[in-house]
Structures are given as structure tokens and as C-alpha cells.
Design brief:
This protein has 427 residues and is of the alpha/beta class. The chain has eleven helices and 22 strands. The strands form five sheets. Strands 6-7-5-15-16-17-14-19 form an eight-stranded mixed β-sheet, sandwiched between helices. A hairpin with a 2-residue loop joins strand 20 and strand 21. GO terms for molecular function: flavin adenine dinucleotide binding; L-pipecolate oxidase activity; proline dehydrogenase activity; sarcosine oxidase activity.
Amino acid sequence: MTLRKDDKIVIVGAGCFGVSTAYHLLERGYTDVTILDRSNVLPAPDAASNDINRIVRSSYDDKFYTLLARQAIASWKDQEKWGDSYHESGVLVLGLSDTPYADEAYKNDVSLGASVRTLRDSDAIRSVFPAQVQTGTFADSAGFLNHDGGWANAGQGLARLIDHVKKLNGKFLPGTRVANLCRDSNGRTTGVQTADGSVLDASLVIIASGSWTASTFSELELGHICLATGQSVAMVQLTESEAEKYRNCPVVFDFVSGFYVFPPNEKNIVKVAIHAAGYTYFKDADTKVSTPRTITSDPENGLLIPKPMLKALREELRKIYPELAEKPFIGTRLCWYNDTPDGHWVIGRYPGDASLVIATGGSGHAYKFLPVIGRLVADLVEDKLEPEVVEKLAVNKKRTTADGSRSGEVVQLHLQDLYSPEDLQAV
């Protein structure tokens, strides 16, 4: 399919995939790009790509992502474009020799020229932290410190890219829910119909709606490759003096447990999470597709996480920063990912419909690629994407391997399992 530069393009979703795609298309000279989002406010308060921080790492067991991440990191360093969104604290990867994922990630980082320091024992691991920081023992652990990485203020980075898209004359329609795809008699997508009955015609529709994809577009039957999962996150508030002790710590990511922890942000908040299989949520017994349950759909309890995860987060934090584990959590969030079975993204034309592109399936590791992920979608649109990448990310690709970076099994969320306020206190 060949598009003219003035053809109408509609993108559904103003998160990482959608905004980055809009930016790269506009940069290439496309002049009629419209981004729709269900949220009245952008970035959407409950979007996975809108958070206080996200890890920026190149440490992947797949060299495709390692190389792309290094390209993204090079862009993140452009302060004219991103301001101070990116913080190069370094990323401490734990699990070397204990997990195949960490071993392959180490090899890929080294082979592509990352600044890596190997840490073969507990003393070496402790040495990467400031002397004033009390850490766990890291007994029988090994890892590596990748200096070429750190974390990004996710909400800020996304907001800046939205501004860049606007400056390129990209059009945003916040508060617009898509009800249906419009199709002609041959099954070709011709636009979208919104919840108020309006129709937006388009030569190309790009679905980039994240964890809402499978439930919003049920007619596409994407449930076998798109699963909305809730991931448990908690925050600890430090005083200014406490934060200064931890300010120069690296991001820590343990591939054995999936636990990760950030240095304090500008508000002296430390965020912790576990990169796990997560929770599914079904609104009722008849619902067959997992749907995000967020602060938007449940303003009172939409941020709460299951009590067992609250305990697990504290136990894992104690292994890294024992002193911080004794402090109360000030809040939590159930952050909703759009997971694929193998952890690879879905960037491809919908089978049998060249006018419909799917760009989603972030699987908890897309945000760091915000500067470059839209380039892949733009290349696909222009039929410039390398054949092996087309095959890797195709909608109808057979996905037989599991995501090696994740721990545990998917569990169904039951509301009675959510914690009570008193559970936020250290025990």
C-alpha cells in the first residue's frame, strides 16, 4: 500500500507507540495526522507511559532490542528535545550466571560497545553504591553495571514529545473514544467511528491503544496476542537528607526475582516494582477479555494493588535497601501493560487489511524506546522495514517462546485481595 504525504492518517492512542509514530510520520513529511485518545487530559493519567519514571536500559537477551535501546539512549541525551527527562544513573543488573536472560543481556551489551563493569561477587556489587548507603548483603549474587542507561521521567518525556508533535501540526482529539472501525465492502478499513457517532475518514488507521486494545477492538480477535495485565508498583517518600544519601545510586534490576528500584526522583520518591506476569481483570463473569482497572474507571480504589504484592515488594526492597524497607509506602499503582506471549511487540499490518496497522504489545518494556519506536511503525507504513523485523513483530506471527524477562504466572485480580490503608505501614 502506498500513501501520499497528504493522505489522512488516524492514530488511536496517545501513549508511547501512538505519539512516537505520529512524530516520525510528521518528520517524514506526512501532513494530515490525527491522534485520538479516550482521556480528556494528555498524557492520560492512567496510561502505562505516564509515570514518574521508567527504566532506560539496553540490557536485553535479544540483540535487536539492545541495538534499538542504544539508539534510543543516544536520543534521550538530546536535552534540547527532552530537557532533563533522562537521568543516566546507570543500571545494575543482577542475576548474572543465575538466569539465561541476564547472561545474554551481558553479552549483547558488551558486543555492542556498552560501558559495562562486571561484578562477580557481593563485595563488587556493594561497591557501586555510595559509601553512605546501607545495602543488603547480595550473598551469592553476581551482576553487571551498565553505565549507559538509567531512568526517564516518563510523564515528562511523553508530554515533551506531544508538544513536538503539535509543533509539527499533528492534531490531537482528547476525550475521543473509538466505538468501531469503518470498513468498505472489501473489508478495508476506511476510518473510525467514535462513541458519539462521528466518523473520521482515513486512508490509514493505526491502533496504538495499549492495554485497552483487545477489549476496545474485540472484532479483531487480538486476545491471543494482547493481554492486559496489572503490574504492582509502590512508592516510598524520603526526606531531603535521606534522598541525598541515595541520589547517586543506580537503578537496580534483579532478573531472578523481577524486582527493580529507582534512585529518588526530584520529589524524593523512591519507586519499586516487580517485573512479573501480573494480574488480569475481568469486569464480570461474562467478560472474556482482560480490561484495565485504573484510577479512571475506579477513582476510589483504582490505584490499589493486591496485599500479597505489597508484602513481596517490601521483602524485595529489604534485600537491596534495608533501611528503606522500614518506611511506609506512601502509595501504590496497578500499572496496566499490554502483554504478548513472547514479550515481542506487535507492529504490523492487520492480515487482509493493508489500511489497518497494529502498533502495541509493549509488554512492559516499550517506554525507553519512545524516541525511536515510532520509526519502526513509519518504516512499516512506507514498506521500508527490514523483512526479518516485519516477521519478528507481525500480527499473525506464531509466538511459541515465553518472555524470558518475566517471573511468575498470570493471576486473576480479585477485589477482596486489595490491601487496606494500614497495610502500607512497615511491619
